[in-house]
Amino acid sequence: MSPRGKKYCRESRVTKTSVVLPPDANTHGTLFGGKMMSYVDEVASISAMRHARTSVVTAYIDSVQFLCPVRVGQAVTLESFVCWTGRTSLEVYVKVQAEDLRTGEQKLCLTSLLVFVALDENGTPVAVPKVVAESPFEQALFADGDGRAQRRLKRQSLMPESTC
Ligand SMILES: CC(C)(COP(=O)(O)OP(=O)(O)OC[C@H]1O[C@@H](n2cnc3c(N)ncnc32)[C@H](O)[C@@H]1OP(=O)(O)O)[C@@H](O)C(=O)NCCC(=O)NCCS
User: Fold this and answer.
1) pLDDT surpasses 80 at 113
2) For the residues 3-17, what does the mean pLDDT come to?
3) Is the minimum distance from the CB of 58 to ligand 1 under 6 angstroms?
4) Ligand 1 centroid, distance to 122 Cα (angstroms)
5) Chain segment 117-141, per-residue pLDDT in tens
6) Would the pTM of this model clear 0.85, i.e. be above it?
7) Is 38 in contact with 94 (CB distance < 8 Å)?
8) How far is the CA of 59 from the centre of ligand 1 (A)?
9) What is the mean pLDDT of the chain?
10) Does 30 contact ligand 1 (Cβ within 6 A)?
11) Domain limits, the chain
12) Ligand 1: which of 89, 91, 158 to mutate, judged by most atoms within 8 Å of the beta carbon?
């Protein structure tokens, strides 16, 4: 059981596997980047909701690394978990592995960090449980979480003011 008011990274872990079909491909016969991002946003939002047990919105896509193309007919397996929390915001790590289903060869093809904000039933940001990192990788991601949040704030402060 997780400590009171806190949740382990593993409690928000999501895994999803899909096969890349021709309608999802670009003109190179590989998975369209926008399609991949919709898969990433979907699994990450489920991790965020598993952690917060409230609705969430995507607030910031902090980083996306497309490391190798994924061909039609290959499988993609996405894994995500909450790796850092602020007061009402959550950061989710996602990795995607491509698999050649005939040979079994697997390659890491994407990593990403996304920020979600938990909302109450009125759409107001609401506090989330703190996250507890266990594995060395989770701990390494968590350790730099405050730094990444500060860098995001600094980057945002450089953007032109926008209102909706
Ligand atoms: C995200 C959103 C709810 C934040 O609202 P807000 O009034 O700025 O909220 P607050 O200023 O109270 O900030 C709440 C938290 O969000 C974080 N936050 C707000 N905007 C952020 C951004 N662009 N990037 C990262 N974090 C952000 C704040 O740092 C704060 O985190 P903390 O509580 O952990 O310290 C609002 O900007 C929004 O609705 N954006 C559109 C979301 C959307 O449509 N997404 C796509 C579809 S899901």
Assistant:
1) yes
2) 94
3) yes
4) 14
5) 999 999 999 999 999 999 999 999 9
6) yes
7) no
8) 5
9) 95
10) no
11) 6-158
12) 89
Ligand 1, atom 5, lies closest to the CA of 125
Q: How far apart are CA 152 and CA 66, in angstroms?
A: 21
Q: Which residues contact 6 (CB under 8 A, 6 or more apart)?
A: 129, 130, 131, 132
How far is CA 47 from each of CA 35, 94, 100, 111, rounded to the nearest angstrom? 19, 10, 26, 15
Query: What is the 15 CA–ligand 1 centroid distance (Å)?
Result: 26
pLDDT in tens, 35-80: 999 999 999 999 999 999 999 999 999 999 999 999 999 999 999 9
CATH of region 6-158, choose from 3.40.50.1820, 3.10.129.10, 3.40.50.11260, 2.40.50.1020:
3.10.129.10
Q: Is the CB of 10 under 6 A from ligand 1?
A: no
Residue in the structure block whose two tokens are 């980057």: 155
